[in-house]
Specification:
397 residues, alpha/beta, TIM Barrel, 8-stranded parallel beta sheet, 18 helices
């Protein structure tokens, strides 16, 4: 068997790479992840659940199996009370083995992932933060993942540090921030963030989580403009939420009152996911996946929309007639009449919630990096309000 093409080889050739979806949210709903900590000990504790979700994303068309290592650094595990059972090393090793086993069942690559740390949010030194990342990538190198992803960073500075450490592996590096068009939580614009990440050594840059597909694609466009204006080159990726978030502010969906247990009314339909896939592709994004709220059927929709560009349909499409064509076999004539593209493209789904508002008012309680950032708000915030913000930031750091 010929060796699999690497991530940069695929992207350099103009291929579309389909990512997977949101493991922490999907596994929380299935009873394997605890909301709040959002830590991935399920990789070691319930490997069969993680393996099955990988397989469902593979069947839906994903050709990257990202290790379930979100928040799997020792400082995060200790901060959230999980280190007593499993160490970061145990979780990272188990996650790598699961991802590799499923990736080898298809033409998929394995990506080892790191994310933001409590050490940075608690204002630890650059050396301390980088040591956290180094400990994680030692496992990824040992397990020989195909490439590395630094994802879910609210501050570009920490993402730069992560990229610098990941580059020492000699493997391709992708970096995604969980920011919107306003930039990171220190006000660094998306374009400038993109430039910083590329200069730090990232081969692929983009956005993940916190915002819906429309917002994330818009933000990647801004990032792309900044990188190109600086005369730099990179590939681009987008892995947004599977939820509508037009009412979010700078911190994204974590400020919504519905976060995290009442977000279901905001879920995008499969047809909206097809629209997202097309918009991302037209924006020049070639690594297209999802984050929290994305289930395998959403990834299948992305794969089906990009069938012509990819040259094939995923195995999961065997049980899914494109644009509802399977409904032609339904017993009810009015349902059979829905077996067409124009019906689903034009449909405006009802929420079925007559007493619910269409938008929420975000909590907007502040950022989560140290006293210095909170002090920047003092001109517009009373001393009493500032104390509340600081207490919350300290508790969540």
């Amino acid at each position: 068997m010929a060796p699999k093409k690497g991530i940069l080889e695929r992207l350099d050739a103009g291929e579309v790479v389909i990512g997977d979806g949101g493991f922490v949210f999907a596994l929380e709903k299935r009873g394997y992840v605890k909301a709040g900590p959002w830590t991935p000990e399920a990789a070691a504790e319930h490997p069969e659940a993680v393996r099955q979700l990988h397989r469902e994303f593979l069947r839906a068309g994903s050709n990257v199996m990202q290790t379930f290592t979100f928040y799997a650094s020792d400082d995060k595990l200790e901060n959230r009370g999980n280190i007593q059972r499993f160490t970061g090393e145990q979780i990272n090793e188990a996650a790598c083995d699961l991802a590799r086993g499923v990736a080898d069942e298809g033409n998929a690559l394995v990506a080892g992932g790191v994310s933001q740390t409590p050490s940075y949010l608690s204002c630890k030194s650059e050396e301390d933060v980088k040591a956290i990342f180094k400990k994680q990538i030692d496992v990824f190198i040992k397990k020989n993942v195909d490439f590395l992803i630094a994802e879910y960073f609210e501050h570009v500075e920490e993402a730069e540090w992560a990229v610098q450490v990941l580059k020492t592996s000699g493997k391709p590096v992708a970096a995604t921030l969980c920011i919107g068009p306003e930039g990171d939580l220190n006000g660094v614009s998306p374009g400038e963030c993109g430039v910083k990440l590329v200069k730090a050594g990232a081969n692929i840059v983009g956005i993940n989580c916190h915002f819906d597909p429309q917002t994330c694609v818009k933000t990647v466009k801004l990032m792309k403009e900044g990188v190109e204006k600086a005369g730099l080159k990179a590939h681009y990726m987008s892995q947004p939420l599977g939820y509508h978030t037009p009412d979010c502010n700078r911190q994204g969906f974590i400020d919504l009152p519905e976060f995290p247990f009442a977000l279901e009314p905001r879920i995008l339909t499969r047809w909206e996911m097809q629209k997202y896939a097309r918009e991302a592709y037209n924006a020049g994004i070639r690594y297209i996946g999802g984050c929290c709220g994305f289930e395998p059927y959403h990834i299948r929709a992305v794969s089906e929309e990009l069938e012509l560009e990819r040259g094939f349909l995923p195995a999961g499409s065997e049980k899914h007639g494109k644009w509802g064509t399977g409904l032609e076999l339904h017993t009810k004539p009015w349902v059979r009449a829905r077996a067409r593209r124009d019906y689903w493209e034009k449909l405006q789904p009802a929420s079925g919630r007559p007493f619910c508002p269409s938008m929420s008012k975000p909590d907007n309680w502040g950022v989560t990096k140290g006293h210095a950032d909170l002090m920047q708000q003092k001109e517009a915030t009373s001393k009493e309000q500032l104390k509340v913000l600081f207490d919350k930031a300290t508790q969540n750091a």
